[in-house]
Amino acid sequence: MTTVVSFGQPSNQVATARRLLVVFDGGNAPGYSSVAVALTEEAVRRDYEVWAASEGFRSLTRDATSEPKFERLILGRQERYALLAQGIPARSMGRRVLDAGSDFRSERYAGFHDPDRRREAAATIAAQGFTHLVCVGGNGTFEGQRALLEDLVPRIPSGFINVSIDDDLGGDRAIGFLTGVEAGATVVRGLLEDAYTHKRIYLVETMGNRSGRHALHCAVAARAHLVVLPFFRFPDEVLREIAEKLAQVDYAVVVVAEGYESERRRTEPGLSASALLLRQLAEVGLVDSPRKRVIAEPFSRYLRGVRPAFLEVSAAYLKASLLFDAFDAGRSEVMPFVLGAHDVGVRPFATIARDDRVEAAFLPLLDRLGLPRFQALVRERFAAGGA
Predict the structure, then answer these.
(1) Helices marked H in the chain
(2) What is the CATH number of the domain that holds 57?
(3) Domain total for the chain?
């Protein structure tokens, strides 16, 4: 018979001057565990007591579904055993730097849009004796943290670590973005080789609901023939131009971001972005035949669970170091950024905004088929600020 152990909460422990809460939320991305390890190592080195919310923001509210709601993060097994013996839920992070995914999160917690839930969360943070707060995720998590801080009285030192495949915050390269591009481009390139061998047309759906950056970089790196970004809306003459060119070439790969025509697809649940584009092209003359197959590859979320690249791990450690340096200097509400070898630092929350745009310098690389109408439409959309 299993004996159920009742674990204590942070508030049951002796109060400390530096009790850090780390909250992971938002869509999963390679590098969450790397950040958890980096924050734990750096915090422990600077005499912080580190706790993680088991289910992200949800753990701070009445909607929590798992116990314990908080876990103490430490580095070694011996310390873990000692803490467990005292009824303190503890997890050793010492060897988990390359783990895929994250143990300390759930799906995006929509309940945090409710002001009452945010007030509950603020009260929980105070009741548990947390003195510092670090949130980890993408733009949605960042906005959740900013809203939460409005209800924290007194406000405590806080920071944010940007982890996202979409890379949708300005002024930083999100941890997970490079790994996501590597994994996504590998799939696209593999299909391109298959298309060449069997003389096929592949419409490959990739991540990119609002931000087309992931789709763009996967496509350019893999040498796809055409990139269809989330904000594109094609008139018939452009669709016809694409269909005619695809009918002429021996093989091709078109990368379609998952957000393509998202509003239109809401009326047809289950219709993928690649399947819609296939249908649109068929309506203007592109024929799927035994001689030349035209295949819509559906979107797969598998790359959310791949292991992070070592370059992402390096960035995780650097961002953790920059953040705690900022705390030691008396700064709060900052996000460490890493853009290049000598382009690093921290940015105040007030200067950070969502950035779903793709880089204008990549415009000439969206089309390798030679499509004048497509190119004119893209230039027009960019000139109008659509990207």
Answers:
(1) 32-45, 77-85, 115-127, 139-149, 177-198, 213-222, 236-248, 262-265, 273-283, 310-328, 372-383
(2) 3.40.50.450
(3) 2
